[in-house]
Amino acid sequence: MPDCVSMRVPGAFNRQCLYLAVFIVVILLVIAVFFCKPIFFQEGNPLAVLSAIAALEFTDANLVRIEGPDLKYIQKHGPEDPLNAYLSGLGWAWADRLGAAIFYKKEGQTLYVEARKLTRRYVVYQLDREPQQ
């Protein structure tokens, strides 16, 4: 065990104590990443989600698509008015909401949207298919 209390030079750590401190910090970072990974990657690529959040915060956009293989949109927490406005612009009419499921209808077709909270400030919508005009 290194003697971190006794100092050879006043006000300076010895080299063993520095290595021990760096080792402890690295171990704590590895543990934090291991346990927080499900939080960071819950919507897939966290960089795409952060990019969409930045677009929400720094532009006038109310609804932003999250880039990726799935059809996902993000908005600030609140009623789904931005999603309704976007889909009504494409000809889809709001039909029903059952818990986290929102249904839109157009010409006999049904569009299913799953809503879920990303954080207390953001809601993610996942559409089952591309809402074409």
Q: Could you name the key traits of this structure?
A:
alpha+beta, 2 domains, elongated
Overview of this structure, please?
There is one protein chain. With 133 residues, this protein is an alpha+beta fold. The chain folds into two domains: 1-40; 46-127, no CATH class. 36% of the residues lie in helices and 26% in strands. The protein is built from three helices and six strands; from the N terminus they run H-H-E-E-H-E-E-E-E. It has helices spanning 15-40, 46-58, 81-89, and strands spanning 64-66, 72-76, 93-98, 101-106, 109-117, 122-127. Strands 1-2-6-5-4-3 form a six-stranded antiparallel beta sheet, with helices on both faces. Strand 3 (93-98) and strand 4 form a beta hairpin. It is elongated and about 75 Å long. The chain starts with 14 loop residues before the first helix and ends in a 6-residue tail after the last strand. The mean pLDDT is 85.
Write the layout of secondary structure elements.
Elements: H1 15-40, H2 46-58, E1 64-66, E2 72-76, H3 81-89, E3 93-98, E4 101-106, E5 109-117, E6 122-127
Antiparallel strand pairs: 1-2, 2-6, 3-4, 4-5, 5-6
Question: What's the quick description here?
Answer:
This protein is α+β, with helices and mostly antiparallel strands. It contains 3 helices and 6 strands, in the order H-H-E-E-H-E-E-E-E.
- What is the typical, i.e. mean, pLDDT? 85
- Specify Rg, calculated over alpha carbons: 24 Å
Measure the end-to-end span. 70 Å
The number of domains: 2
Point out poorly predicted stretches.
Answer: none
Strand fraction band? 25-35%
What sequence of helices (H) and strands (E) makes up the elements? Answer: HHEEHEEEE
Put simply, the count of helices is 3
Shape field: elongated
Strand order of the largest sheet: 1-2-6-5-4-3
Structural class: alpha+beta
How would a textbook summarize the main sheet? 6 strands, antiparallel
Q: In percent, how helical is the residue content?
A: 25-40%
